[in-house]
Amino acid sequence: TQDIANKYSHKILSIEKDDFTFGFAINYGIKNSTGDLACIVSAHTKPLDKNWLKELVSPFKNNGIDNGIAMSYGKQIGDTYSNFSENMDFKKYFGSKELYQSQPHYFCNNANAMIRRDLWTDHPFDESLTGLEDIEWSKYWMDQGYKVVYKPNACIVHIHNENGEQIRNRFWYESIAARSIGILSFGKILIEFPRQLLFMLRDVIYFYHLKGKGQLSDIFLYRFNRLIGTLKSITNKKINLKDY
After folding, report:
1. pTM here?
2. 146 and 42 in one domain?
3. Which domain-ending residue is among 141, 158, 175?
C-alpha cells in the first residue's frame, strides 16, 4: 500500500504507532492538506468506478460550499472474499436511495466521505474516541442544523479480512465510543442479543438462497463476535485505544 501511495500521491505523512487513534490520524491528514473540502477514505477500500469522487463532491456544488451541508458519504460494498454477514450488513446500512439526513439520524461513515474543511477547523474529530469519530462529528453539526448527505453512487469496495478476535474488538471499540457520545443506551445494548440472533438466522437463509461464497461457519463467527464485542461495552464505557 505504501509503495502504491508513494507512486501516485503528492504527499505522504507518517505518524508514530503510539500516537494512533482514528481521530488523530484523520486530523493530522487534514491539517496537512489544502482546499475547501477534505476527502476521507479508509486504507482498505477501492472506488467502484471513476465517478466516485465526483459523486461525493456533488452535494457541495449546489449554491456554493456554504449550503448547509457538513458532510457527504458514499455507499460501501464487500468483495467476493468478504464475510457473508458483513456483506449483509453493508446492504442494510448502505441502500440505493440518496438521503439528506438531519438529527436524530446521525449515521454516517468516513471510510468513504467528504467534509467541509472550515467546519473541521471549528470542530476537529475527537481523538479520544475508540471509533465512531465520524458519527460524533456529524452529530455535532447536525445538532446545529447542518445536514449530512448519503450518495449511493459514490461507491467503494470495503475489504475486511478479520478473524474472530478482530471482529469482536472492532465492535467493542465502536460500542464504547457510541456510549461515550450518547447514542447507545444500556437498553439498546441488551436488544442486540435478539437482533443478532435474528440477523444470523436471516443470513443463513440468504446464504443458501443466494448460494453465498465462503463457509456457513463464517456467519456464526461474525454474528457471535459482533454480539460479544457489543456486550463487553456494558462494563467498559471508555478506554484508551492505545492500550490495545
Report:
1. 0.90
2. yes
3. 158
Neighbours of 15 (CB within 10 A): 11
Query: One digit per residue, pLDDT tens: the chain, 244 residues?
Result: 677 777 777 788 888 888 889 999 999 999 999 999 999 999 889 999 999 999 999 999 876 677 899 999 999 999 988 999 999 999 999 999 999 999 999 999 999 999 999 999 999 999 999 899 999 999 999 999 999 999 999 999 999 989 999 999 999 999 999 998 989 888 888 899 999 999 999 999 999 998 877 789 999 999 999 999 999 988 765 555 444 4
* Residue at which a domain ends, from 158, 185, 210: 158
Pairwise CA distance, residues 236 & 64, whole Å: 43
Domain CATH number, residue 105: 3.90.550.10
| Domain extent for 6 | 2-158
* Strand duo 37-41 + 69-77: pairing: unpaired
Distance CA 47, CA 53 (A): 8
Torsion sign over Cα 42, 164, 202, 198? negative
Residues 42 and 104 in one domain: yes
Beta bridge partner(s), residue 115 = 38, 71
Question: How far is 39 from 30, CA to CA, in rounded Å?
Answer: 9
Domains identified in the chain, total number: 2
Task: Show the cell assigned to 41.
Answer: 477514505
